[in-house]
Automatic annotation (TrEMBL):
Its EC number is 2.7.13.3. This is Chemotaxis protein CheA. Residues 408-550 form the CheW-like domain. It comes from Adhaeribacter soli. The modification Phosphohistidine is found at residue 48.
Amino acid sequence: MKSREQEYKEIFIAEALEYYDALSRHISELEKAPKDEKILAEIFRLLHNLKANAKAIGFINISDVSHKLETAFGLIRNKELAFSDNVVNVLFDGIDLLGEMITNIDNPNYKETSNEVLLRNLDVIIESADGAMPTAENGPLEVTKVQREFTAKNLSLSELIYIQIKKLDHMMNLVGELIIDRDRILSISKDLDNPDLISVSSHLYRITDELQFSVMDARLVNVGSLFNKFPRIVRDIAVAENKQIHLDITGQDIQIDRNILQIITDSLLHLMRNAITHGIENPEVRTKKGKPASGNVWLSAQNDRDMVNIKLRDDGKGIDLNEIKSAIVRQNYLSADVVKDLRDNEVLSYIFEPGFSLAKEITEFSGRGVGLDVVKNAIDSIGGRVHVDSQQGKGTTFTMHLPTSIAVKGALLFEVAGGFFAIPLMHTDSVVSLPKNRLHEVGDMLVADIMNETISIVYLDELLNAPEGMMQLGNKNILKGDEQNIIIVTYNNRKLGLIVDKLLRQQDIVIKPLNKPVDNIDIYGGVTLLGTGKVCLVLDVPAITRYFIGKR
C-alpha cells in the first residue's frame, strides 16, 4: 500500500503537469495577443498556485522558479515590463524548465546544471522591468545554449482525472446493490452445498469487498480541505466579538468521505462560533480569572477504527449545569423534580434540543434562534454521533464521531418475535446478558444498574408489536425466559437498553429508504436485505431514545 506522502506527491505531480500544459498554452496565446489581460491573469494565477503547492510539499526549487516567473508576469500584468521578444524567449524557457523539473522529480540522475543561465536571465528581466535590453549594470541576457529534452513536449497525459461527486455517488449505490446480491448468492451457495458454486461465490465476496474499498477510497478527501479555512473564520469572529483567539489545528491529513465532510461543514462552523462567542471569555474577564488574555481553541481530527473523530475544544468558561437545569424547567422540557435527578451527561444533552438556548443577547454570530439541534440533526443524518464534555471554568469539548461511509454501515443484527432487525454500530455501546431479577420496575419503565449506571430498559417485542395503548413496558413478567439479551445503545449523551430475543452477528449492510406506508414510522430508519433474502428493518436509535426522554 502506498504511503500517504507518496499519494500526495503523485497528486502534486499530476496537477503540476496540468498547470504546465495550461501555462504553455496560455503563453503561446499571449505571444499573439500580448495585451490580453484575461490570459495574463490566468497565467499569474497558475504560477501562484504552483508556487504555493510546491512549497507546501517541499519542492523548493520548483517553488522558486515559479516565484520568479510569477514576479515577471506580475510586472507584465502591471505594465511595468514589456512583452518583447527578448522577454518572451526567457519566459518560454522558464516555463519549459518548470515542466522539466516536474517530470524529473523522481529521477535520481537529473541534475539542474543547465539552469544557471536561465535563472540569471529571469533575474535580469525582473530587475530591468522595462522590456529593453538591460544595461551593463544588470548585465546582458545570455543565450540559453542547452535545448531542453522535455520540450523536444516527451508528450504525456496526466495520471490525475477529476470525477464529479455525483458519479462517485452513483458508483457507491451500485456497489451497495452488489453487496446485497453478493450476500444472497453466498447464502444460496451454502444451502445448495455445491463446491464449485461456493468457490465462485467466495471469490465474488472478495472482489466485491475490494471494489467497495476502492470506491470508498476514491471518495476520501483530507479534512484539511475544511480545517484550513478556519484560521480566517476564527479571525473574523474574534474581531467581531472583541476577543483574542489562538487557534491550533491538527490532523489535517486525516481522510474522510467527501459527502460526510460536506454535510458537517455547517455544523463545525456553528460549533466554532459558539466556542468563541459563548465559550471564550473577554480578555479582561480571563485576566481576572488568572487565565491568559488570549483564548485557545483546538480543532483536531483522528482515526478511531472505522470512524473519524473530529474534536473542537476551548479553554473558556465551560457550561454551567445549573444554568442548563433552570433553562430546562423554564422552557418546559421537564419538571424541576425530574431535573434534579438527572446525571450530568443527561443535563448536557438538552443543549441539543430544538429551540433550547442560553444566549442572552443577539450578536452577529449568535442568538438568532438557531440552536445546536441543527448540528445534531446534520450528524444524525449521516449516522454519526456528537458528544459534549465540559468543566465549568476550564472549557468545553465537542466530539463528532463520524462514519467512514454513508451508503455502507456496520450494524448489529438480531431477532425480535421472529423478525430481523439491525442497529448501526455507531449507536451501539455494548451488549450484556442479565437475569430477570436484575431488572427493576420503576413507574412505567424497567431500569437496571449496568456498569455503575442506572439505565432505562425497553423490551423491544412490546414496543414493536403491542397494540396501541396496551404496551406494558414496565412489567418484567412479560419477558421470555430468565436471561435477557440487552443491547445498550447511546445517543446524545443518553443510554438506553433494548431487550432482544436473539443476537445474530455484526455485518456491513446497505440501508435503503422505506416505502409507504411505513416510511412515516419514526422508530424505523430504513431497511436492508439479508443474504437469506429476508427483509431486515433498521431501527432509528435517535428516534427511539427521544421517545423515552423523561420516562425514567
